[in-house]
Each structure stands twice: as structure tokens, then as C-alpha cells.
Specification:
The chain is about 75% helix and about 0% strand. By secondary structure, the protein is an all-alpha fold. Keywords: Cell membrane, Membrane, Transmembrane, Transmembrane helix.
Length: about 325
Amino acid sequence: MNDVLGHLLTAGTLAVILMKVAPILLAAIGGAFTQQGNILNIGLEGMMLIGAFAAISVGSLAGNAFVGVLAAVVAAVLLAALYALATLYFKADFIVVGIGINLLAAGLTVFLLQVLYGNSGVTPPSATINLPGIPLGPIADIPVLGQAIANQTALVWLAFLCVPLYSFVLYRTRFGVHLRAVGEDEGAAAAAGISIRRMKFSSVLISGALCGLAGAQLAMATLGSFTAGMTSGRGFIAVAALTFGLAKPVRTMIASLIFGAADAIADQLGLAGVNSNLALMTPYIITVLALVLAGFRLRGAWAKRAVAKRAAAKAQTA
């Protein structure tokens, strides 16, 4: 027991938690944007995966991590545009298209691995690129905390910066007000002159950009290589985080911290000799429980909204 706690209660564990939280938080904030427009974006997983592949393949070819990050964003935004086109213009079901996006990304990345590198499982050692860590100077000398936050990538800091930025956009800008109006009542928003399709399309593209950043962090933060299916359900965990957090900035961040911490602790438990299968199940068990709880909360919120609409309708006819 002491050995297990010794592995968990360290600066290294905290550093791993921050590293694990970043891609989940970025994807969850991206999904929260679409959720505000009343779109549950199941395609976060596929957008993260294609972003991770683009980050490694283009970044290693250019020999520049920044170029890799940019390529990840472009690739994920293109996939997001396909999602938006299919759902908003061709009226396909959001959930079905999201599943299709995930399957497309999984198959496409394996195909490109085989075509470009002759290996359908992983990129070769020649195709590696890492995001540099940011040294913090004297701050790194602070016990535990300083050691944990030192040499984290810029995308880790950007992930946490996205929380106040998301809050600002959502509550302090015209775009955010219109997006929330679309999510609350499309009919009323359209009557007020808001373009429903444009707002939803924009939110999907934003989610794609943030998923691209999430994929870049996932692929380039440590190993600097791409493995087929390396997202391993993190996109769905991000969906759980934003659902559990009701797509609110701080709540979504807290949920992402819980899921990221569970993932990091599972890794540390494996290193401490705890049954690896049990340890790997931990984040997904927490995800399922969180989704069940969030489902009850959402059902209650929808019921209250339906009652309010019926009351408003009665008041108009009276």
C-alpha cells in the first residue's frame, strides 16, 4: 500500500495528470461549443485522431513542431467541415455522422500509415517530432508544484487558457450570445434574424480546431510518434466531460480534470504493480458513471424546459 501511495503522491504524477488532462480538456471545450448550439458532437474522437496523425506526419517531414500543430488543426477542421456539411446541409443525423467520422478517421489513418510508411500500426523512428517543453526558470524550483508544471508543452497551458477564453466568448461576445440563443430555441433565434446554420457550422469548425490541438498534444507531448487508434476513447471521454459539465466552462474543466487524473492514476497504478487490466478500466468506469449521472441531470433540465414552454404556450393562448 505504501509503495502504491509512493507512486501516486509525487510531482511526477501531477505532471502526468496535467499532460493527460490537456487533450481531454481541449476536445471537451471544442465539443462544448457545439453543445451550446444543440449539437452533441460524437465525432471528437475521429477529429483528435486525424489531428494526431497529421501532427506527426507533417511535423516530422518539416522538422518543425509548430508546422505539425498547424497541420493537425487543418486536418481536424477539414474533417469537422465534412461533419458540418453532412449534418447541416444534407440533414443527416448528428450521431450517425459522428460515428461515421470516427470510423473514417480510424480507417484513413491506418491506410495512410501503410501507404506512407509501409506499416499499418505505427510511424517509423524516422518520423518522430516532439513538442518542446517550456522551462519556467526559478518557478521550477518550487517543491512538487514547480517540478510538475515545469517543461510542460505550450498546448498544456493553452488548454487551461481556453477555459476563460471559452467563458468570455460564450458570455461576453455577440457570437456567444447568438450561439446560446440557437441552442435554447432555434425558432426564436431565427425570428431574431440569427442564421442557425452559420452559427452551428462555426461551432463545429471551432470544435475541429480544438480537437486538432488535442491530437497534436496527445501525439507530440511524449513519444512524438503516431500509433493506430492512439486516442483510445479519449474523444468519448471528452464527450462525457462536457456532458457531465453541462458544457459550462468551469464545470467542463473540473470534469476533464477528473477524467484526466483517472487516466494518469491508472498508468501510475500499473507501474506500482497493481493489476494492469483493473487500472486501465478506471477512467472508463468513471466515464460511464459520470454519463449516467449527467443523463439524469439533463433529463431533469429538459423536463423543466418542456414545462416552461407549455406554460408559455398557454399564456399566449389565454
